[in-house]
Design brief:
Elements lengths: L4 E19 L5 E21 L3 E6 L11 H12 L5 E7 L10 H16 L6 H9 L5 H6 L2 E5 L4 E4 L7 E7 L5 H6 L12 H10 L2 H6 L2 E2 L2 H7 L2 H11 L4 E4 L6 E5 L2 H12 L4 E8 L6
Parallel strand pairs: 1-8, 3-4
Antiparallel strand pairs: 1-2, 2-4, 2-5, 5-6, 7-10, 7-11, 9-10
Helix pairs in contact: 1-2, 2-3
The structure holds adenosine-5'-triphosphate (ATP).
Length: 292
């Protein structure tokens, strides 16, 4: 039967570890990151329409609904690459905070690539979609792969890791936002006194040892963001105080996440952070592992 509409969950990511190795000529940075999908998601539907072309709507009023939206760009790339001349309407119910270090935009783009592959029965492999997604952004291939992975290069070279042990992930988005470009530009690469021990995080994942992972969480970009927004440290402390095994800023921030083994503790942390004067949104998510 011909498919007419498809529903997708575009899931956010957190960085269990993020290290920056060097700055490249083109302004990008060579990184080493451990990425993990969480089940906080934007809900996306793509419906075929009678009139040809791409239309996009979102319930989040600050997001563009034209070519500036990365989900629109993803659809355009699929239409151009595979000569699709039909019509679609993409609907995005936004839940992942925007410009927050959670790869919300990349997740939306990834979902559109995967969704259109199914909707038009294109039979492209995951690898083909990941290569295409790289043109849209370095995080897009991971958002297609999902689960637990080591990302190198500018974030696009992915090595799958064993699934991370299940836990609750409390995610708090502070009141302010930061641009990824600003954070990288202001990173003082030559004077970093600290680098996360990525091998130890990977070891923790391989051993299935949540405590070991939590103890070794680290993100060099905190040096830039926390200097300007010490609130991030307050939020991390609160997460730990309420039972997190570890807490960290995700990506270029400013979102902070805490890992909890115990659901009750995660709920208590959620309730506390809801009342925090520096926090805009709080979510309780869980680790999302790759479907087998
Ligand atoms: P990363 O963790 O990969 O650095 P991020 O979570 O910090 O990403 P995003 O939410 O992905 O940041 O988006 C950053 C910018 O992209 C915003 O300024 C936003 O206006 C723009 N944008 C375009 N399309 C989207 C979309 N579908 N969802 C979110 N942001 C979008």
């Amino acid at each position: 039967m011909m498919m007419h509409e498809i529903e997708l969950k575009a899931r956010a990511k957190i960085n269990l570890a993020l290290d920056v190795l060097s700055r490249r000529e083109d302004g990008y940075h060579n990184v080493r990151m451990v990425m993990q999908t969480v089940d906080l998601y934007d809900y996306i539907t793509i419906r075929k329409t009678k009139s040809p072309g791409i239309k996009l709507k979102s319930d989040y009023k600050w997001l563009p609904e034209d070519e500036r939206n990365i989900a629109y760009k993803a659809a355009k790339l699929m239409f151009d690459s595979y000569s699709i001349d039909e019509g679609i309407l993409i609907n995005i119910h936004k839940k992942i905070p925007v410009a927050a270090g959670l790869a919300g935009g990349s997740a939306d783009a990834a979902a559109v690539l995967v969704g259109l592959n199914k909707l038009f029965d294109l039979k492209k492999t995951k690898k083909e979609l990941m290569d295409l997604g790289y043109q849209l952004g370095a995080d897009v291939p991971f958002c297609i792969l999902r689960g637990t992975a080591l990302a190198e290069g500018i974030g696009e070279k992915l090595t799958q890791l064993p699934s991370m042990p299940f836990c609750y992930v409390v995610i708090a988005k502070p009141l302010f936002s930061v641009s990824t470009a600003y954070v990288y530009q202001n990173l003082d690469l030559n004077n970093l006194s600290y680098h996360p021990d990525i091998e130890e995080v990977i070891k923790g994942i391989q051993m299935g040892d949540l405590e070991h992972i939590a103890k070794n969480l680290g993100n060099v970009l905190e040096t830039v963001t926390i200097k300007e927004h010490p609130e991030i440290n307050d939020i991390k402390k609160k997460m730990i105080e309420f039972g997190a095994l570890g807490a960290l800023m995700s990506g270029s921030g400013p979102s902070v996440f805490g890992l909890y083994k115990d659901k009750k503790e995660a709920q208590a942390a959620y309730t506390e952070l809801k009342l925090h004067s520096q926090v805009k949104d709080v979510f309780i998510a869980t680790i999302f592992n790759r479907e087998r």
